Amino acid sequence: QKEVEQNSGPLSVPEGAIASLNCTYSDRVSQSFFWYRQYSGKSPELIMSIYSNGDKEDGRFTAQLNKASQYVSLLIRDSQPSDSATYLCAASDSWGKLQFGAGTQVVVTP
Amino acid sequence: GAVVSQHPSWVICKSGTSVKIECRSLDFQATTMFWYRQFPKQSLMLMATSNEGSKATYEQGVEKDKFLINHASLTLSTLTVTSAHPEDSSFYICSAPRAGGGSYGYTFGSGTRLTVV
User: Fold this and answer.
1) Among all residues of chain B, which has the CA nearest to that of A87?
2) Which of chain B's ends, N or C, has fewer CB atoms near its CB within 10 Å?
3) pLDDT(B46) > 90
4) Hey, which residues does A12 pair with through a beta bridge?
5) Given this model, what pLDDT does residue A59 score?
6) What is the mean pLDDT of residues A78-107?
7) Do B49 and A97 touch (CB under 8 A)?
8) Whether A79 contacts A18, CB under 8 Å
């Protein structure tokens, strides 16, 4: 079992709609959780970090963490074409190592 | 703040030669640096962890004699790909925890695209 799992997509979302991304994780990586956005050929850039159960909102992005279900999600509201990218879910273990999921490709269609 | 500068951004080398990739923390001290490799359309795979003043620790399946890591100072970590082969062609990215073992997030270098011909 991979430590961080997410659907690879692609997830096609109409412009202006909500994109919903999901991620599950194993017991070994249960410290901190992050969502990164990666454009093709570029390094990942941090969108959201979340450490405790519940929701965290930042602009058009909302991260949700449910530790009992070992589940973390990301909602992108009012999706824009510039949101088209690969979204990486990541979780850190007790040594601070960051493990990544396979990434979900999001395509926002005009 | 918390910027990691990675060089070179891209490099082409001949098979059998060695390539060095540098990551420098510009405005903070990085006692730890993580090195990742990313093949096309795949996610980032952790290769190794470098710690200032001590030997790097490698993930299972990563050849430590092929991927030499040096973390000689609190602001510089290097990855040397020795005797490179075409299968080593990949996108290499370094990352450092901002503070508190990553509890405040991680900052990434801009990545190095290595092509071995």
Assistant:
1) B43
2) N
3) yes
4) A107
5) 96
6) 92
7) yes
8) yes
- What mean pLDDT do residues A74-85 have? 97
Rounded mean pLDDT, B17-27: 95
Separation of alpha carbons A4 and A1, rounded Å:
9
Residues on chain A touching B6 (C-beta within 8 angstroms): 43
Q: Indicate the residue type of A81.
A: P
pLDDT at B101: 58
φ, ψ dihedrals at B87, nearest 5° = -70, -10
Q: Which residues of B touch A31 (CB under 8 A)?
A: 102-103
CB contact under 8 A, B46 and A99: yes
Amino acid at A11: L
- Band (A1; pLDDT cuts 50, 70, 90): low
Evaluate if residue B72 carries a pLDDT over 90.
no
Across chain B, where does the E strand assignment appear?
Answer: 4-7, 10-13, 19-25, 32-38, 45-51, 57-58, 67-73, 76-81, 90-97, 106-108, 112-116
CA distances from B71 to A71, B50, B58 (A): 35, 6, 14
Contact A102/B106, CB-based, under 8 Å? no
Chain A positions in Cβ-Cβ contact with residue B46 (cut-off 8 Å): 97-100
Question: Does B108 contact A99 at a Cβ distance shorter than 8 Å?
Answer: no
